[in-house]
Write a structure and sequence with these properties.
Layout lengths: L2 H19 L4 H19 L1 H5 L5 H11 L1 H10 L1
Helix pairs in contact: 1-2, 2-4, 4-5
């Protein structure tokens, strides 16, 4: 796991904790925007994710969490 993925997981943890404990503010909108952007990446890179050696569900979860960092790893594997 590279530093980009570690920082992304930390960002998701901070955004999740903010959502649970602090209520409605700008970080909640950031989390929603990040989730929507990563969902669009799942749609855009559907073929690449489905052709990977990983299970398709695993690929979509990885894309929702890490976004383009996971897609870049798929390109390196190919």
């Amino acid at each position: 796991m590279n530093i980009g993925k570690i920082l992304t997981v930390l960002l998701w943890v901070v955004l999740g904790l903010n959502y649970l404990f602090y209520g409605n503010n700008i970080l909640n909108y950031l989390a929603l925007a990040l989730l929507i952007i990563h969902a669009f990446e799942c749609v855009i890179f559907y073929k690449k994710i489905s052709l990977s050696e990983d299970h398709i569900f695993y690929g979509f979860i990885q894309t929702l969490i890490f976004g383009v960092l996971y897609i870049k790893d798929l390109s390196k594997k190919a």
